[in-house]
Prior knowledge:
Number of domains: 4
Strand content: 35-45%
Shape: flat
Number of strands: 54
Helix content: under 10%
Strand order of the largest sheet: 37-36-41-33-35-39-38
Amino acid sequence: MLVAAGALLTGALTTLFTGSLIAGLAMAGLTAAMYFFVPKPKTNLKKPASLADFKISQVQEGAPVPIVYGTVTIPGTITYYGNLRVEEVKERVRGGKGGGGGSREVTKGYKYYIDMWQIISEGKIELLDVYLDNDETKKPTYSSQIFNDGTQDTYPTELEHANRLKGIAHIYWRGFFVGENRTHVPTVYFKVKRVLNTGLPHENLSNGSNPAAVVYELLTKYGNIPVSDINLQSFINAAQYYAQKGWGINYVITSTREIRDVINEILSTVDSFLDYDEQGRITIKILRKEDTKIATIEDDFIEFSLAKQAWNTLPNHFVATCVEGTVEKALILENQAAKLYAGQVIRKEYDLTMFDFNTAASRLADIMKRESYPKMTLNVKVPLRWAWLKVGDVIEIKNTELGLRGEFRVVSVSEPKFVDNDIELTLLQHTDAIFDSYYTMPPASTWSPPPKTLQPFTRIRVIELDYDELPRYLVLVNREVGYEEGYAVFISYDNQTYNYLTTLTTFSIAGTIQSTYSQDTYDIDDDVGVIFRPYKLFEDMPLSISRKNLFTEQRLLVINNELMLFQNVAPYGNTDWRITGIVRGVLHTTKATHNTNSQAFIAPIYNNILTIDATSTFYLKIVPIGRGQVGDISQAQAITVTPQLRSRTPKAPARIRALRQGSNVYIDVHVKDRRGAGVLNADAYTDTYPFDFDGVLYISLDGVNWEVKDTANFVINNSNAFTLRVKHFRDGRYSPERSIFIGSADGEYIVN
């Protein structure tokens, strides 16, 4: 009995988005109707049951195939059963009255076996566990199995007219054991983990699917939205943000629903929504608690009204439903201060079943901090020039008449009218970041207010990078007072006159290492690690990541002149952090020993890279920006930068191979002049022989009489032992030198 399985998502995404997002049906079968086995045991069997004795209830054709994300447990859908096999269960009993007549064999009952095909879900999955009747200790028994993870071409070929169920994860059992003296098939439960392949970073997190990747798949696969109509960078940024927060979701769609509703439900749990950008592309907008103002409206109001919640109306008892394993649990947090203000318990409930227990606890803590503070709401009418503001933007409001000043988030923007030159804004006080950024740690007895003036930065480094054709510099800056929103970069070529260059917004975490870090560790150091003590910790310490993401995560550990990647970050004592999973000497830096108290930086790579095409010494000043202020440039330290032009300097040859045959020595030089060659796409990489490269080689025998070679493969006629020295020359610059000693005996000589 084959069935038809329909897709689950239909309808327009939202009235904001024009056009239809109707998902097409994903047909899993082509004939008959779907049957579920309903428990209906039979007892006192006199004869073996036939297939007709398995009582079933009919379900309409076109039942939907579940769409799963993250790690979930779902029951299977039976799409075929048949080939019943019956095995007698016999028992020997004593016969005759009075104990005479000996013993005889009687039929005690029957064991039933069938062939069965079950649909699991749509898309690629990893099968983690299979069990029966919602009991994880009861495992299925069968003679053979065919499992398709949703991407393979395996299916039960012995079934005539069987559909291959492309794109559907399914499983087929031969000789599935139904039970002894029972004519209902046990419900099979599958614990599965969805494997997304959207191309977004961090799409498959350890605690669920990345919400950005889920929404991207819903739009493109089920909504038929062209990729060109999506702001891909916003989805990449969102995926990285959700991964940093550890927000993986575990979610199942089991009925026909509108894409709009599904996406809104998912994004609302991670403080996000969909919007259009300036090019009309769909973008994810995240309401980050770290968001800072993008504009200031000062005394530019046509109408102004405000309202503020009372303490006795705010929730103070927060209850969330979440999932631990397969069990739903209630998680409770109380804000005792808000409870005392209100004088009563005010309960509010949240559905966080998309998250695992730990993630739900973290989210509920964020919600409690946000919802238990009496925020102010403003309704203002302002001139039409403010019509460019969008929902979600954070702006500063200054009303000198009322003595009001603060940051607010735009909640709504009215459509401009033809007859009026104004718009109406609804604004909500932006307080999310205050709770995390300004507090006094116990056992302090008094509160110290944050400084009201910006302070010059004291922890700064500028490092020339070597990964592009243009000279690029990584700027590492640690906040001094905590409310800096960015930093202005000024440049000078004489250390007298400074001109504004740009503004950067990505801060690093400066500190020192608390023990010597030897150059003798493995190139990927999982054992020794670094003990890092922050200077001033105004940023969140980075999260640990998977090994898979180690080489793609945009962050560095910088100690002296060595750049490193890192995987794991964990608290170490009261003030320090232990960093392990370190990839030493990346971006052509040298692995070195670093002494105790060496300066170090943890540096995210985002908006903190400068491109300065200078060939001689220049000077930089880094000036803080924040709270509508710009720091004093005269107090900023001058940073001297002497360009090494590392990106333009050829690399030393990676390998030299020499083969001596008598007086002839055949030389192969492996020149490094293609960035990423053989790494970015190894399957498609080809090379030529003789090796092709830009520039020329300079070679010398024992350091005498340098000779130019325009090929990397050449022959030297010399029967004596000698040292060959090689350097690469390109665009007017020499690479570091490599040398190899070639003896007088025939054979192969190699230096790597």
